[in-house]
What does this fold into?
Amino acid sequence: MILPIYLYGQPVLRRPTENLEKGEIDIKELVANMYETLTAAEGCGLAAPQVGLSKRLFVVDGTELKEDYPECADFKQAFINPEIIEESEDTSTYSEGCLSLPGISENVVRPKTITIRYLDEDFKEHEETFTDFKARIVLHEYDHLEAHVFTDRISPIRRQFCKNKLTNIAKGKTGARYKYKR
It folds into this structure.
């Protein structure tokens, strides 16, 4: 089932998230719905707050990016209760967008390498290190679990340039090409 994506201005995007407990919800169904929603919106990552849930869960699917980022060819997974345990000092800059902020993209500086601990859909614990574009996707979605959006990470002057666009999204003057909720 395709879920509506919550747009900038929705309080759930700025609310702290809570860990998911095994058996609390049908995690397999939720993850499947999030993947379906992500595919329909043509994105590469989607966090639970973006579909209205203040839970520590996000999904990524970089498989469509394989031509430009071959390392993403098989990068499709769910992250439950993730925790970043290490970030490199080495950084990279890349223009990011977000399904919750349609029509906005800005250069964001992020660590090139991260190590993250998380649970999979079977609540099995993993610890993995990601680099380059995989790390960027994970960090972008992880930010949603910390009640941040990518524009929080840009310079104050760039944020000022985005202010009208963000206001228009929050006031419902800007929509999206996919199913959304204002």
Notes: The chain has three helices and nine strands. The chain has one domain: 5-181.
